[in-house]
Amino acid sequence: MAELERDRLRASWVDMFQKAVQADSWGQVVEAQEDYQRLASIIAAQQGAPYIASSDKDCMQRLCLCLSARVQALQTLNETITSFDMKALQPVFEVLFTGQELEHFPVENYKFQSVQLVKPAAKGEILCEGDEHSDWQQQQAVLKSVAGTVVCLRIEKIGLKDAQDYIDPYITVIVADPRANMLDTHDTPVARERLPQHVMFNHQVYLKVSLEQMQAEQAALFFEFKHYKPKKKKVSTRCWAFMELSELKRDAEMVLEIYHKPTDLRKKAIKLHTEKPLYLHVYATFVRS
Question: Global pTM?
Answer without folding.
Answer: 0.83
